[in-house]
Write a structure and sequence with these properties.
This protein has 167 residues and is α+β, with helices and mostly antiparallel strands. Helices cover 35% and strands 34% of the residues. Strands 1-2-3-4-5-7-6 form a seven-stranded mixed beta sheet, with helices on both faces. The radius of gyration is 16 Å and the shape is globular.
């Protein structure tokens, strides 16, 4: 598996995964094309042997102190292997590189796996948007992450995992 910057050349594969992952509220090809081309965001592709098995997007305009996770999707046959976490951490690393202080997102209330992932990375619930996801009428859980805390925690975890020299 490898993560790389997504490009417009990935649009067809991204749209196939978008439609499979979000059958009732998939973004249009026009909207996704605009997202991939926007200077305000960055999209990443997760590949396995040349096959796109996931993608994720972050909106973080230059100079902004906050960012939004736009989307994360992983192919059904690739779920349960930590790929969503890999994509999320890639987005958070990009946000940190852009000197963002806070990251926001909305997650469907009927997606407990995604919600648990976000909580495990330090996101907290700010509130709910009733019937936000249409046409299903599913609430959106609005979440926030203090990126400075996440970055410090991630650095501490990395240091704790580093091999130590014997003296």
């Amino acid at each position: 598996m490898s993560v790389r910057a997504a490009t417009l050349a990935d649009l067809d594969a991204i749209m196939a995964l978008e439609r499979a992952s979000f059958p009732t509220d998939a973004w249009s090809e026009t909207l996704m094309r605009a997202e991939l081309a926007s200077p305000h965001g960055t999209y990443f592709a997760l590949e396995d042997d040349g096959r796109l098995v996931g993608y994720a997007g972050l909106r973080a305009p230059a100079g902004s102190k906050d960012a939004d996770v736009q989307t994360i999707a992983v192919a059904a046959d690739a779920r349960g292997h930590g790929h969503g976490r890999t994509l999320l951490r890639t987005l958070l690393g990009e946000a940190a590189a852009r000197r963002v202080a806070e990251v926001f997102l909305e997650v469907r209330a009927d997606n407990p796996a995604a919600h648990a992932l976000y909580v495990s990375e330090g996101f907290t619930e700010l509130g709910r948007r009733p019937r936000y996801y249409q046409p299903d009428g599913v609430d959106a859980i609005v979440m926030r992450l203090d990126l400075r805390d996440w970055s410090a925690r991630t650095a501490a975890d990395t240091a704790a995992d580093a091999p130590r020299e014997r003296t």
